[in-house]
Design goal:
Blueprint (H helix, E strand, L loop, with lengths): L5 E2 L10 E2 L11 E4 L2 E4 L11 H10 L3 E6 L2 E6 L2 E6 L5 E4 L2 H10 L4 E3 L3 H4 L2 E4 L6 H15 L10
Antiparallel strand pairs: 1-2, 3-4, 5-6, 6-7, 7-8, 8-10, 9-10
Length: 158
């Protein structure tokens, strides 16, 4: 038995080795040692007003978008091809080309991540849209739609 995580409870209560509640630490700004000296770690504040409903309405506003399900996750398609999925409440996944993905990762590194594994190498990219700037999220979702839609289709405003 690992005594740091569990504690023995008396036989009277009937609960042996009950989990002890985790103790929280106070919020502090930490410092990390680097070659050039100390650097404060950034803490992000949610400045974006993009919600799940806003992202879904953005996807539905694009031409010929159909909402469907892929492995139990909500997704959005154009003529049967997926361009946006919502696998988690924290992020969405968009389809970019590998070149577009590298360019976006070079400019906005903190809030955009490639999907782990081979899918990320093909251009599938995670957007932390609750934290990411609204205009950047809109631009990336529209670009994802363009990558999947036929070339004969055009977005309004293009």
């Amino acid at each position: 038995m690992h005594w740091r995580r569990y504690r023995a409870i008396s036989c009277v209560s009937g609960h042996f080795n009950e989990r002890r509640p985790q103790r929280g630490r106070p919020f502090r700004r930490k410092r990390r040692r680097e070659a050039s000296g100390y650097r404060a770690i950034r803490f992000y504040v949610n400045l974006s007003s993009m919600t799940d409903d806003d992202l879904i309405s953005l996807a539905h506003s694009l031409p010929e978008t159909v909402e469907s399900s892929h492995f139990g996750n909500r997704d959005f398609r154009v003529r049967g091809k997926i361009y946006l999925t919502l696998p988690s409440p924290e992020f969405c996944v968009v389809k970019l080309t590998p070149d577009q993905q590298q360019m976006v990762l070079a400019t906005v590194l903190e809030h955009i991540l490639p999907v782990p594994g081979a899918w990320g190498l093909k251009g599938w990219t995670r957007l932390l849209y609750h934290i990411l700037d609204d205009e950047m999220t809109r631009a990336l979702v529209r670009q994802s739609w363009r990558n999947v839609a036929p070339k004969s289709m055009a977005l309004p405003g293009d």
